[in-house]
Design a protein that fits this description.
It contains five helices and eleven strands; from the N terminus they run βββαββααααββββββ. The chain is an alpha+beta fold. It folds into three domains: 50 residues, no CATH class; 38 residues; 98 residues, Head domain of nucleotide exchange factor GrpE (Nucleotide Exchange Factor Grpe, Chain A, domain 2, Roll). The strands form four sheets. A three-stranded antiparallel β-sheet has the order 1-2-3.
Length: 188
């Protein structure tokens, strides 16, 4: 950008060149005579400044806008990746802890009627309830299987033939909609 301004100081009339740097957008001012002067560079005299034609100016502006858009897209992509990481960071931990939850559930299934009323069995049921609430609060859901149609994406058939689930051998789980362990089932 270049603009020419005239000013008078103590009766001395001078023209000034006001210009802006392409590198850092700083605005400069110098006398027009100096602006259009030549400088010695490598044994030759050359103009102090070169004018850019309109195509070059638009090219720089286009490059700047493109770089800015790329940077903004990079920031968005990084934020998205960070959200994905946080959302599924629990998966490894859950692989270790879900068998404990499953074994607690199994411990109650093998009890007879008299043992089911035992205070320790009641305590295990409370622990299971807390376990389930915490898992659900973290986005973990148990895959429903009994009586449902066999779903090859969330279930693994380990016996039987047919397309409906007869028995669940080991429950399966999803974390925020992503499968972390398929349910092992018997089909009929």
């Amino acid at each position: 950008m270049l603009s020419i301004a005239a000013s008078a100081v103590d009766g001395d009339h001078r023209d000034w060149a006001v210009y802006q740097s392409l590198a850092d957008d700083r605005v400069w001012i110098r006398p027009v005579k100096e602006f259009f002067s030549t400088v010695k560079s490598k044994d030759t005299n050359q103009p102090r400044f070169e004018f850019l034609d309109q195509d070059e100016i638009e090219s720089w502006e286009h490059k700047y806008k493109r770089a800015l858009a790329d940077y903004q897209n990079l920031l968005k992509q990084q934020a998205k990746e960070k959200q994905g990481f946080v959302k599924y960071a629990l998966a490894d931990f859950l692989q270790d802890i879900l068998p404990i939850y499953d074994h607690l559930k199994l411990s109650l299934q093998g009890l007879n009627d008299q043992e089911k009323d035992n205070p320790w069995a009641e305590g295990v049921r409370h622990v299971l309830k807390q376990f389930k609430e915490i898992l659900e609060a973290r986005g973990v859901e148990e895959i429903k299987t009994i009586g449902r149609k066999f779903d090859h994406e969330t279930m693994e058939a380990i016996g039987g033939s047919g397309d409906h689930v007869k028995q669940e051998v080991m429950p399966g789980y999803k974390l925020n909609g992503r499968l972390i362990r398929p349910a092992k089932v018997v089909v009929k």
